[in-house]
Specification:
Blueprint (H helix, E strand, L loop, with lengths): L1 H6 L9 E5 L4 H4 L3 H9 L3 E6 L4 H6 L3 E4 L4 H12 L4 H28 L3 E4 L4 H4 L9 E4 L27
Parallel strand pairs: 1-2, 1-4, 2-3, 4-5
């Protein structure tokens, strides 16, 4: 199983520090929770870095969590101030590829220095500055993409109410 290979893999003889970094949105945070739970259950230290709105939710699930970056709505407002009545595609590229990435990286770099993770799991688009080597001192990083195989119901309470159950839907 891929999760077991990743979480346990060649690192089974020692406890790893794993940092999960994701956009502050339901479809970005929640799909990472099963992998984070598996890592924690395998004995690794699991830390999340995401938007402030999700920090309390993750802490209720007993994850160590830190606010990183800004809300998508705040990134949109900043991009609109910068661009005015720009083309919608340019607005989206500026929001995610510049404003949000820049603010996320500004908070992530000190967290990386403090935690010195063995593995960084991130699912967000890297943005222009992410490729600049800011996380190259980390032994390994893994980019994951949210999949429609993970089924969550925000109306039903999300993972706060189903922690410990199977998160994979069919």
């Amino acid at each position: 199983m891929l999760v077991n290979e990743l979480v346990i893999g060649n690192f089974s003889d020692r406890r790893m520090r794993i940092l999960f970094s994701c956009r502050p949105a339901l479809g970005h945070v929640y799909p990472l929770i099963p992998l984070a739970m598996a890592a924690r259950e395998a004995g690794h230290r699991v830390v999340f870095g995401t938007g402030a709105a999700f920090v309390p939710r993750l802490r209720r699930l007993d994850f160590e969590a830190y606010p990183v970056g800004i809300a998508v709505s705040e990134a949109e407002a900043q991009a609109r101030r910068q661009l005015g009545d720009a083309d919608p595609l340019e607005l989206i590229l500026t929001m995610f590829g510049d404003v949000l990435a820049r603010r996320t990286l500004a908070d992530l770099v000190p967290l990386l220095a403090e935690l010195r993770p063995d593995l960084v799991v991130y699912e967000q688009s890297p943005g222009r500055r992410h490729r600049s080597g800011q996380i190259r001192s980390t032994p390994m990083s893994l980019r994951v993409a949210p999949s429609n195989h993970f089924a969550y119901s925000h109306e039903a309470g999300g993972p706060d109410h189903v922690a410990g159950q199977s998160f994979c839907g069919k």
